[in-house]
Amino acid sequence: MAVHTVVLIPGDGIGPEITDAVLAVLEAAGAQIEWVRHQAGITALETSGEVLPADTLEAIEHHGVALKGPCTTPVGEGFSSVNVQLRKTFDLYAAVRPVRSLPGVKTRYEDVDLIIIRENTEGLYSGVENEVTPGVVMSMKVATENGCERIAKWAFRFATQRQREKITVFHKANIMKMTDGLFLRSAEYTHRHDYPNIEYTSAIIDAGCMRLVQDPSQFDVLLLENLYGDVISDLCAGLVGGLGVVPGANYGEKEAIFEAVHGSAPDIAGKNIANPLALLMSAVMMLNYLAETTEDNSLLDVAARIREAYDEALQAGEKTRDLGGNLGTAEFAQAVIKRIKHN
Ligand code: ATP
Ligand code: MG
Fold it and tell me: Which of 56, 143, 180, 304 shows a CA-CA span of 20 to 30 A to 30?
């Protein structure tokens, strides 16, 4: 079995403890991965004076794949989001967040199976804000033809590869005729021109939100611009048990960074109560990605065994507190490890 090298950024807040839990599970499952540890965010600021040190960026560029814990973004002035900076630096324009019902995790819905595709580099995350005149501030929403087209193509290609049936765009093109209009038209065009076999629909985002909480099964793949993707990701997390169970991947042309949808959750950091599952699921996505890109099929098997093990643990009621259980972060990892089948 080949050894794969992956950059590991533990992050801050609950980052280090959920990272430890995930590493333990991956090791127990026999994933042949050599981790190259680097820092980002507050931990990096403390040791190197920079939130994104050059050696971290170089390592990601060199190895192409990273598993990343959450990095705190302070609200307000003087500190721009590390997550956003990373996505921009490597032009990781496609964020993918699968949202699925889990065995043993009871929620309002039983068979949620959605994939959120979020455009990761444009929209209101352009970070262009200014004071027009005292008392009047402005934030710029950016959409480019290139940005809208490439995410539309990415989404339809992804849906085709994964044998999904339908893509729905949430938008507010009735108000933001130019920006959301461009996003919407690009998706429509890509569907008509290149992917007529994938069904395409759109919904105004407010009505879409209502329909999502009434009956999520009417949607399949959701394609969203940056800010809508951020908000809808958390909403959809709520459909399946919360932020502790939604993983994510950020893809560019060359690099890929895998991270949970949730943030650093400072309120529960250092208490061994955070759910490591979202990061573990992100690691499983990473194993599948590595298998695909390196043609090392043994990783598919490792990924499947981890998935089976956490499904079984959840089914048996072995859960962290956010899911109504009573296990700590490390104890949940052990419950998963106990269930990993060895060939
Ligand atoms: P960000 O700005 O980085 O997105 P946020 O303010 O949205 O951060 P999160 O850290 O994502 O906040 O989480 C919101 C709350 O959800 C946390 O305060 C915590 O109580 C809960 N939470 C998030 N992740 C987890 C987890 N892995 N396990 C348990 N609870 C979690
Ligand atoms: Mg958040």
Answer: 56
Ligand nearest to the CA of 264: 1
| Interface predicted TM-score (ipTM) over 0.90 | yes
CATH 3.40.50 in the chain, residue ranges: 120-240
Q: Architecture of 120-240 per CATH?
A: 3-Layer(aba) Sandwich (3.40)
- Return the ligand 1 atom nearest residue 71 CA: 3
Cα 193 to averaged position of ligand 2 atoms, centre (Å): 35
Superfamily covering domain 1-107+241-343: Isopropylmalate Dehydrogenase (3.40.718.10)
Q: Is the CB of 73 under 6 A from ligand 1?
A: yes
Residue 330 binned pLDDT confidence (cut-offs 50, 70, 90): very high
Q: Six-digit token pair at 103?
A: 């065995």
Distance of CA 113 to the CA centre of its chain: 15
Q: Which residue has the tokens 């994939």?
A: 115
pLDDT by residue (tens digit) across 248-261?
999 999 999 999 99
Pocket of ligand 1 contains residue 323 by CB under 6 Å: no
pLDDT digits (tens, 9 = 90+) for 9-57: 999 999 999 999 999 999 999 999 999 999 999 889 888 888 899 999 9
pLDDT tens track for 142-152: 999 999 999 99
- Residue 221 in contact with ligand 1 by CB distance below 6 A: no
Identity at 276, one-letter amino acid code: P
CB of 215 sitting under 6 A from ligand 1 = no
Q: E-assigned strands of the chain?
A: 4-9, 33-37, 65-68, 94-100, 113-119, 129-133, 136-139, 166-171, 199-204, 221-224, 249-251, 256-259
* CATH 3.40.718.10 intervals, the chain: 1-107+241-343
